[in-house]
Design a protein that fits this description.
Elements (H helix, E strand, L loop, with lengths): L1 E9 L4 H13 L4 E6 L2 E4 L10 E10 L3 H14 L14 E7 L4 E2 L4 E2 L8 H10 L12 H7 L7 E4 L3 H4 L1
Antiparallel strand pairs: 1-4, 1-5, 2-4, 3-4, 3-8, 6-7
Helix pairs in contact: 3-4
């Protein structure tokens, strides 16, 4: 059993409902158990800034799936929910990113672990710190709290709401 952290979010339609639906699909997946969920946060878009704001959070899962199989399941959930990848960093109904898979370090064409941009994103680090307040990046050893402190500004990340209890289980 491995522990993995998954970033989730979206900015099209009912953002909270989309996050809840994605998490429900993830929880129903063979070989995956939701262990903990961060609160939800409102965040400004990154890259293409002329688009709606996002709802973001992080899920901690315990899994028997290999990293690539977990990534493939995340991509399946996005497709099941109607995600279409037209523009990089563009609007999306749901986005599921495999951030960490234990201390695994991987650099392949389809998967890089830890996620290569996780230390650059307020919308990842703020909810991740709720789940792993003493966590460190597996490659650099940098504490997540230090990575967040060195980022400029706040990324427009604001508390939105806790997920409902029935989703957090």
């Amino acid at each position: 059993m491995a522990t993995a952290f998954i970033g989730f979010g979206g900015n099209i339609g009912d953002r909270v409902a989309a996050c809840e639906a994605a998490l429900a699909r993830l929880a129903a997946s063979d070989g995956v158990r939701l262990a903990a969920l961060s609160d939800l946060f409102r965040s400004d878009p990154v890259g293409i800034v002329d688009q709606p704001w996002f709802v973001n959070g992080v899920a901690e899962v315990e899994t028997t799936l290999a990293p690539i199989d977990l990534l493939n399941r995340l991509i399946e959930i996005e497709a099941e929910m109607g995600r279409v990848r037209l523009v990089k960093n563009g609007p999306r109904i749901i986005d599921l990113d495999l951030l960490l898979y234990g201390d695994t370090r991987l650099a392949e064409t389809t998967l890089t672990l830890p996620h290569p941009r996780m230390l650059e994103r307020h919308f990842v680090l703020v909810p991740l710190l709720q789940l792993a307040p003493h966590g460190r990046h597996p490659v650099s050893g940098e504490p997540f709290v230090a990575a967040l402190a060195r980022l400029p500004g706040d990324g427009g990340v604001r508390p939105l709401l806790p997920l409902p209890a029935e989703v957090r289980r």
